[in-house]
Automatic annotation (TrEMBL), chain A:
Keyword Oxidoreductase listed: yes
Root EC class: oxidoreductase
Pfam families recorded: Transket_pyr, Transketolase_C
UniProt superkingdom: Eukaryota
The protein's name: 3-methyl-2-oxobutanoate dehydrogenase (2-methylpropanoyl-transferring)
Catalytic activity annotation: N(6)-[(R)-lipoyl]-L-lysyl-[protein] + 3-methyl-2-oxobutanoate + H(+) = N(6)-[(R)-S(8)-2-methylpropanoyldihydrolipoyl]-L-lysyl-[protein] + CO2
Species: Aspergillus wentii DTO 134E9
Residue stretches making up the Transketolase-like pyrimidine-binding domain: 61-238
SUPFAM superfamilies assigned to the protein according to its UniProt record, in alphabetical order: Thiamin diphosphate-binding fold (THDP-binding), TK C-terminal domain-like
A GO biological-process term: response to nutrient
GO molecular function, one term: branched-chain 2-oxo acid dehydrogenase activity
EC number(s) on file: 1.2.4.4
Key words of the record: Oxidoreductase
Cofactor(s) essential for the protein: thiamine diphosphate
Automatic annotation (TrEMBL), chain B:
Protein name in the entry: 2-oxoisovalerate dehydrogenase subunit alpha
Sequence ranges assigned to domain Dehydrogenase E1 component in this UniProt record: 101-406
Species per Swiss-Prot/TrEMBL record: Aspergillus wentii DTO 134E9
A GO BP entry: branched-chain amino acid catabolic process
Keywords from the UniProt entry: Coiled coil, Metal-binding, Mitochondrion, Oxidoreductase, Potassium, Thiamine pyrophosphate, Transit peptide
GO terms for cellular component: mitochondrial matrix
Reactions accelerated catalytically: N(6)-[(R)-lipoyl]-L-lysyl-[protein] + 3-methyl-2-oxobutanoate + H(+) = N(6)-[(R)-S(8)-2-methylpropanoyldihydrolipoyl]-L-lysyl-[protein] + CO2
InterPro entries with a match to the protein in the record: Alpha-ketoacid_DH_E1_comp, DH_E1, THDP-binding
Function in brief: The branched-chain alpha-keto dehydrogenase complex catalyzes the overall conversion of alpha-keto acids to acyl-CoA and CO(2). It contains multiple copies of three enzymatic components: branched-chain alpha-keto acid decarboxylase (E1), lipoamide acyltransferase (E2) and lipoamide dehydrogenase (E3).
Superkingdom classification of source: Eukaryota
Length: 385, 451
């Protein structure tokens, strides 16, 4: 794995997904992050959507800067917080830990040897002695060597320790995830469903800079469980919005209704929300009177079933969208829960729009992952069922 | 992602600027010196090996040409101190008698519990026979504030650190007094203080965890100088040392200068696999040097050697701001691997009998005690009898005690019960109420109301 990864680092990656779209493209146009309604382009809407005072100041940041701001806030809030992983010291290969070692010292911000199982094992041990380690796995694709430490150890630590009261709840494992247009097999994966099958860990994926900071601070300070924090790396530079400067948190157990609607519910998380938003805009423009409800799960497990069920009981139709493949994916769990909890309200089958059950072959990415066209088509099919 | 190549190129320089805190003096020293090759130099200054001499002799280093790492021993198998001129042991006779009784306790408990498993009164058991000296001797060198990560054949560590027969039996019978709340297989002991982390079955996972825990103790010591100096002791067998986590744990402990002592119990077998099929180097100790870790091999049947090596290892681990140490303790697994194993399927009974007779940590210390006039056959008989009585008493009491309430199946997965878990508990309760004859609830505290 390391030699290949090193080679891949030589490639300069443009920040957003490239669609070699035909000139006739109406749906699959590149996402314009500067105009999407999903981002706070000004500071004025922040205080209404986040639980922060009106007087809070904010700065326009992209996702990696927001993560950096969250980590800086965390490191200055508590000397229990430590930050480590591969290449973290110089700022990280995605710049998320820029300047943090200079500010907080090499005792608390440091490089580890290149060993994912070592990094997560180390984090568990530090958390068990009361620290709040934030471990970085350089790409979610490389978390698998640490799978045993996450599944058998971190997730089960509190349960097996029982009455000793010892736990590894202070730990957070951050990892960049998702496709970037040319990441191929090992720089594109989103293994959230694998972790969602593991009781004992919380799995989180933010969609935007302000959400990332609030959720990450929440993962570090407000929730005493091991958290898998997945950062859609395509948004690191692309998504820019106003982010509060101070400490604030977003609870990990609540989904967010991004856009209310009455006719169909779309449930998604992470980057595909932007695709959903674009598809919804196209449909609503085309079919007057139709309005679609869009829900961001934010926390993939344990997830906010009530918000989703309430929505589907109202709309009667549901679509789940995610980038990771469809087979045994998050969509399967959400769809099963909907049919169990809102069976009598359903007017159409729950549809899943997700990556096909294959690997992310380099030149085929745009055919494999969900795009605006597929989501648009799914909404139409669901409405017309 | 796009910046990698640019940033990587300046990495060594930046690191040199950032690191020179006293905390990282060793690394900083190495980084801040120029790594360029001076003309005419007799040694290589590659960044990956900064002090390697050139040679025009092409020779591969062959491990079998190297002398094997010697085994430190204080007393011979007759319980006589090998070095007549050495200074006296720095332990009181009273403490040594406690060690002996602790080894004996584990040994007596092993016999009773192994038999109990054979009678079906216990689901599983693993004895420590032949390795009591390693666990009791090493634990005797720890303070109560030190933290232990164990594998599973270290009952002596728990015994030496204050775990009582009551605690052992509660865990073995998974009853309502069990720290593990009835969740873990037998011999997966755990305690908060002195902190012995609850044992987990996956092998070697505790090794990088021990490194991280040691790093935490070191950081906490730096942040609060009033904290007592603490180390982590991490135990594992020679089979577990083949796992990737061994490599990860030792390497990360070395690069982060963690105050941790790794204690490998090399007992010759991993279940049925002899060491010849486990590794081809000079045991586990030879690997420590490769990681830049201070290493010693000791006679694990010699409790004095184990104790002295561990005491020194602890001192070294706390020196220079913290560093890891590896102790390889040699012994022989005279018992079966576990109650699920018949070891005579893969090794000769006569070999085992031979080891039992020839060398054994308990007999060796007993001989020393007898030579010193501190022990005799009468004391041996009465102590064994009393221990056996105590074991059986706690055994009976623990066996009669109820299991924890059924809700403990769902608690502690997360800090709080999730809404999903609450739903599932309700659903299970509905099933239990609807089909009362299908489930035996009487052995669980609070019965149906325990949910």
């Amino acid at each position: 794995m390391p030699p290949l990864r090193a080679i891949s680092k030589l490639i300069r990656h443009p920040p957003c997904r490239l669609y070699s779209a035909a000139s006739s493209t109406r749906l699959n146009a590149p996402i314009d992050y500067r105009s999407t309604p999903l981002l706070h382009h000004t500071s004025s809407s922040l205080s209404s959507s986040l639980d922060i005072p009106d007087t809070a100041t904010s700065t326009s940041l992209n996702l990696y800067q927001a993560i950096n701001s969250a980590l800086r806030t965390a490191l200055s809030t508590s000397n229990q917080v430590m930050l480590f992983g591969e290449d973290v010291a110089f700022g990280g290969v995605f710049r998320c830990s820029m300047n943090l070692q200079t500010e907080f010292g090499s005792e608390r911000v440091f490089n580890t040897p290149l060993t994912e199982q070592g990094i997560v094992g180390f984090a568990i041990g530090a958390a068990a002695e009361g620290m709040k380690p934030v471990a970085e796995i350089q790409f979610a694709d490389y978390v698998f060597p640490a799978f045993d430490q996450i599944v058998n150890e971190a997730a089960k630590f509190r349960y097996r320790e029982g009455a000793t009261g010892v736990h590894a709840g202070g730990m957070v494992v951050r990892m960049p995830c998702g496709a970037v247009g040319h990441g191929a097999l090992y720089h594109s994966q989103s293994p959230e469903a694998l972790f969602a099958h593991v009781p004992g860990v919380q799995v989180v994926m933010p969609r935007s800079p302000s959400q990332a900071k609030g959720l990450l601070l929440s993962a570090i300070f407000e929730h005493n469980n091991p958290v898998i924090f997945m950062e859609p790396k395509i948004l690191y530079r692309a998504a820019v919005e106003h982010v509060p400067n101070e400490y604030y948190t977003i609870p990990l157990n609540q989904a967010e209704v991004i856009k209310p609607g009455n006719d169909v519910t779309i449930v998604s998380y992470g980057q595909p929300l932007y695709l959903c938003s674009a598809a919804i805009a196209a449909i609503e423009k085309e079919m007057k009177g139709v309005n679609v409800e869009l829900i961001d799960l934010r926390t993939i497990y344990p997830w906010d079933r009530q918000t989703v069920l309430d929505s589907v009981r109202k709309t009667g139709r549901a679509i789940v969208v995610h980038e990771s493949m469809i087979n045994y994916g998050v969509g399967a769990e959400v769809a099963a829960t909907i049919q169990d909890g809102a069976f009598l309200n359903l007017e159409a089958p729950v549809k899943r729009v997700a990556g096909w059950s294959t690997h992310t072959g380099l030149t085929y990415e745009k055919f494999i992952l969900p795009d605006v066209t597929r989501i648009y088509d799914a909404i139409k099919q669901t409405l017309e069922y | 992602m796009s910046l990698n190549i640019v940033r990587r190129a300046v990495l060594p320089l930046r690191r040199a600027r950032i690191l020179p805190s006293p905390f990282n003096a060793r690394i900083a020293g190495r980084c801040s010196s120029s790594i360029s090759q001076r003309p005419g130099s007799d040694r290589v200054r590659f960044p990956g090996a900064v002090n390697s001499k050139f040679t025009s002799q092409m020779s591969f280093i062959n491990a079998s040409d190297m002398p094997n790492i010697p085994t430190y021993r204080v007393m011979d198998s007759d319980g006589v101190l090998v070095e007549k001129t050495r200074e006296a042991l720095n332990v009181s006779n009273e403490n040594i008698l406690t060690w002996y009784k602790n080894m004996l306790t584990v040994s007596v408990m092993d016999v009773v519990m192994f038999e109990a498993q054979r009678q079906g009164r216990l689901s599983f058991y693993m004895v420590s026979a032949g390795e009591e000296g390693i666990s009791v001797g090493s634990a005797a060198a720890l303070t109560p504030d030190d933290v232990v990560f164990a594998q599973y054949r270290e009952a002596g560590v728990f015994q030496q650190r204050g775990f009582t027969l009551h605690d052992f039996m509660s865990q073995l019978f998974a009853n309502s007094n069990d720290n593990g709340r009835g969740r873990n297989m037998p011999v997966h002991y755990g305690s908060n203080y002195p902190r012995n982390h609850t044992i987990s079955s996956p092998l070697a996972t505790q090794i990088p965890q021990a490194s991280g825990a040691a790093y935490a103790l070191k950081l906490q010591g730096l942040q609060d100088p009033n904290k007592p100096p603490r180390i982590v002791a991490c135990y594992f067998g020679e089979g577990a040392a083949s796992e990737g986590d061994f490599h990860a744990g030792l390497n990360i402990a070395a690069t982060r200068s963690c105050p941790v002592v790794f204690i490998c119990r090399n007992n010759g077998f991993a279940i049925s696999t002899p060491t010849l099929e486990q590794y081809r180097g000079d045991g586990i100790a030879s690997r420590g040097l490769g990681y830049g870790i201070d290493t010693i091999r000791v006679d694990g049947n010699d409790i004095f050697a184990v104790y002295e090596a561990m005491q020194e290892a602890r001192r070294v681990a706390l020196s220079d701001g913290g560093k890891p140490v590896l102790v390889e303790a040699m012994s022989y697994r005279v018992s079966h691997h576990s109650t699920s194993d018949d070891s005579f399927a893969y090794r000769a009974r006569v070999e085992v009998e031979d080891w039992k007779r020839r060398d054994n940590p308990i007999i060796r210390l007993r001989k020393w005690l007898e030579n010193e006039g501190l022990w005799n056959e009468d004391l041996e008989q009465s102590t064994r009898e009393e221990l056996r009585k105590n074991v059986l008493k706690e055994f009976g009491a623990a066996e009669r005690l109820k299991k924890p309430p059924i809700r403990e199946a769902f608690t502690d997965v997360y800090e709080e019960l999730t809404e999903e878990a609450q739903d599932q508990m309700k659903e299970l309760k509905r099933i239990l109420e609807k089909y009362p004859n299908e489930y035996d609830l009487h052995q669980f505290e609070e019965g149906i109301n325990g949910l």
